[in-house]
Amino acid sequence: MRYEIIFAPEAEEDIVALRSNDRAKALDAIETHLRYEPEKISKSRIKRLDAMQWPQYRLRIDNLRAFYDVIYSIEGGTVEALIVKEKTEAMNWLAAYGRRLE
């Protein structure tokens, strides 16, 4: 199944703020890994955030991290990219804004 990829406003701002080579890497990785198998867990690339209600997944792109959710509807699946930040900033964002399972 082919997933639609949408970017939250904060993710769009993050992408624009990246250096051009990092932006190209991030967009390419998002397209490559999230377009067809966004829930395919791997040892280093895609991680399901088990203790988190939101966001659901993390994609590692070199020193960048993209957090995203997968949403299903009658029409098909959608991947919503929430943020794309450097690792330290991403972990701070997750600690501040992520919602843990209760």
Strand content: 35-45%
State the end-to-end CA separation: 31 Å
What is the N-to-C order of secondary-structure elements (H for helix, E for strand)?
Answer: EHHEEEEEHE
Q: Helicity level, as a percent range?
A: 25-40%
Question: What is CATH's topology name?
Answer: YaeB-like fold
Question: What's the CATH architecture?
Answer: 2-Layer Sandwich
Low-confidence stretches: none
> In terms of quaternary structure, what is this?
single chain
Round the mean pLDDT to the nearest integer and report it.
95
Q: Total strand count, please?
A: 7
Using brief descriptors, characterize the structure shown.
YaeB-like fold; 3 helices; alpha+beta; 5-stranded mixed β-sheet; two-stranded antiparallel ribbon
In words, what does this structure look like?
- With 102 residues, the chain is an alpha+beta fold.
- It has one domain (4-100): RelE-like (YaeB-like fold).
- Helices cover 34% and strands 37% of the residues.
- It contains 3 helices and 7 strands.
- The protein has helices spanning 9-17, 20-34, 87-97, and strands at residues 4-7, 46-48, 52-54, 57-61, 64-73, 76-86, 99-100.
- The strands form 2 sheets. It has a 5-stranded mixed sheet. The protein has a two-stranded antiparallel ribbon with strand order 3-7.
- The mean pLDDT is 95.
